[in-house]
Amino acid sequence: MGRRSRGVNHAAQMSREAGGSKDSQKHRRLHWSEFSRFAARIGHTLEAVNEAEDWMLEFFVWFLVAGAMKPGTLANYRASLSVIQDTAGQDMSGSTRSRALKLERRNRHGKHRARTPQEFSELLAAAQKLDDGVVHVIRLMRWLGLRMREALMCGKSLETWRDLILQGNRRLPIERGAKNGRPRRTEVLVDHVEETLDAINAALAFCRGRDFELITGCNDDLKSAKARLKSRFDQLPMRKELGSHSLRFTYAVDFANAALDRGMPPVEVLTELSDRLGHGPSRGKMILDVYCWQIRHRFPEKIQLPSDFVPLKKTDERNRSLPAMASAGDRVELGNGAEHRRRRPARRRRAQTNYAGFQRKRNFQ
């Protein structure tokens, strides 16, 4: 196995340790493999993750920008590399941020919109002529705000959801297909409990004799089932602003309107909606700008929302605990996260790197 291949395998191991869905782990590995290939082209073969330096990452970013990569895709690349490096114990606090590089930010505005009742009825009518399983997936996505993967894998949860609704509980757990493997809880719309219960009962009756699968692929696995569902969606009026994600937009708009009509404070509406959609309770600004842009007039023009992103202060806290005699180089060496994460050392590390690390530790002692 070559040196660069060992580095890619090390990155794949770190990606598995970081967790997340199989797709997320695969994408991280592919992104690191592309970065490793770029580093080799400029004369640096990465045999381990922590051999990557900040200037290499910055050069790689500008290389992607020069290739006309879209801001959203570029953000995904940077996130993948950051997760792998953080899992490997590298200190990411000193790395260059996107704002410092003045990179173009991802623009999600105007991508999708909520469907009108007539558009939703027309979509169901078209799906009924195509595939009954697709009809049930569409109804569940619309009434529960599910992602496509969540709706595809929810068959074994339908009976539990039905029982909870009949018991008067409108919070339903989503344990299969959740993004990055994070279970979440959605909420049945207060004005559409009957429609939601009918959708769940119909889907349960359909998939009970099909091993609780709403869509079955040609290879009888999740990958082929997802490909078949996407193919069916392409045959329906589900493109551009009315793509499959528009069903989640419809759920979000209905949830926000009902909550505002009940007199709930706007900030609390956005916080709860963010939690119900699986984005966590701290993404209020994103929810307002993306999901609720059609009803923006119902929220105050100036609304104070908690910050979507809180900067990490791990390195500062670690540095405070270091002895006063430690130099700046010692602080960087000890503040790389190694004290709280056990990591298998990379094999055949460069002699120069080992010698430099040995000298720093020796001076510190």
From TrEMBL:
Domain Integrase catalytic: 104-254
Domain of life: Bacteria
Gene Ontology biological-process annotations: DNA integration; DNA recombination
Keywords: DNA recombination
Transmembrane regions listed in the UniProt entry: none
Keyword flag Protein transport: no
The keyword Transferase is assigned to this record: no
Cross-referenced Pfam families: Integrase_1
GO molecular-function term, one example from the UniProt record: DNA binding
Renumbered residue ranges of the record's region Disordered: 1-28, 320-365
Biased composition (Basic residues): 340-351
Protein name, per record: Integrase catalytic domain-containing protein
Annotated source species: Paraburkholderia piptadeniae
